[in-house]
Amino acid sequence: MPGGSIYVSRDDKLDGTEQWNYEKLWAEAREARLKRRGVIAGVGFVCGILLAIRFSLNPFWMALLGGLAAAGADFYLAWRAHESTAVWRGKRRGEVLTGRLLRRTLARRGYRVLAGRSIPGKASIDHLVIGPGGMWVIDNEAWAPDTEIARYGSKLFLGERTGGKVAEELIKVADELSDLLEQETGVPVRADALLAVHGGRITDGEEARGVVVAEGITVLYPRRIARWIMSHPNDELSDEQVELLARTAARVLRHA
C-alpha cells in the first residue's frame, strides 16, 4: 500500500493515524537502535576493563559484565519509552493498568477500590477509592508521547487545547457521587477528582514532580496516584464509615 511499511502489519483501525505512524517509525528505527546499543555495549566493555585494572579484578568478566550492563540498560530504557505509549496505541487498557496499581498499593492500607462503575442515568467512573483519608474519583486518559500536560496560570492545558472541559466534567461526576453517597448513608463526604494520564509529558508542578494541580483536579501518572492519595487526605473516615460507603457504592452504582 502507498506509504506503507514492510515492518508493521496493516491495521485498518489505525491506518494513517498518529498511532500507526508512531509504530511504523518505531519499527523502521530498529536498526539504528541496535547500532547505538552496540556502541553503548562497547563503551561498557571498555569501562569494565578500566575498572578491572583499577581494582585488580578479572578483566574478561568485568569487560563482559560492563558490556552486558550497558546494553541491558539501553534496552530497558527503549522498551520503557515504547511501553509508555501502549495505552495510547490501543495495545493496553489504561483503566486496567491503573486499577492494578491501586489495588496493589492501597487495598492493604484500608482503602477500598471499585472499578468500572456508573451513577445511574449519569456518567461512568473508572475508579472510586474510599479509605481512611477520604474519597477520590479517578478517570483515565491517553495522549501522544509528545503531548505536554501543564498548568499556565490557573489554566490546565492538554497539549494545545485547554483542559477546562475535561476538568469540569470530572468534577461534576465527583460532586454527583458525593451527593448520592451522602444521601444514601448519611455520612458527609466529598470526592476529589484525579486524572490518570497514560503517555504525554507532565511538566513539573508546584506540588510534586510529575503532578499538575489545576482547575479543581489533579493530573498525574498512574504510578503516582496511590502515594498522592495517602499523602493528601481530604477527609477523616473511620473504618465503619469506609465500609458503609464502600458497600453502599457497590450497591447503588452500576457496572459500566
Describe the structure.
The structure is a single chain. Helix 2 runs antiparallel to helix 3 (59-83) and helix 4 (94-106) packs parallel to helix 6 (222-231). This protein is of the alpha/beta class and 256 residues long. The protein starts with 17 loop residues before the first helix and ends with a strand. The strands form 2 sheets. Strands 9-10-7-3-2-1-11 form a 7-stranded mixed sheet. The chain has a 4-stranded mixed sheet with strand order 6-5-4-8, with helices on one face. Helix content is 47%, strand content 21%. The chain is built from 7 helices and 11 strands. The longest helix is centred in the N-terminal third of the chain and has 26 residues, at 30-55. Residues 1-11 have low confidence and may be disordered. A hairpin with a 2-residue loop joins strand 5 (155-158) and strand 6.
Task: Detail the topology: elements first, then pairings.
Blueprint: H1 18-28, H2 30-55, H3 59-83, H4 94-106, E1 112-118, E2 124-131, E3 134-142, E4 148-152, E5 155-158, E6 161-162, H5 164-185, E7 191-198, E8 201-202, E9 211-214, E10 217-220, H6 222-231, H7 239-252, E11 254-255
Parallel strand pairs: 3-7, 4-8, 7-10
Antiparallel strand pairs: 1-2, 1-11, 2-3, 4-5, 5-6, 9-10
Helix pairs in contact: 2-3, 4-6
Question: How would you classify the helix and strand content by structural class?
Answer: alpha/beta
Please give the share of residues in helix: 40-55%
Q: What is the topology, as strand order, of the major beta sheet? A: 9-10-7-3-2-1-11
Shape: elongated
Low-confidence runs: 1-11
Number of strands: 11
**Mean model confidence by pLDDT:** 91
Q: How many DSSP helices?
A: 7
Beta percentage is 15-25%
String of helices and strands = HHHHEEEEEEHEEEEHHE
Distance between the termini: 39 Å
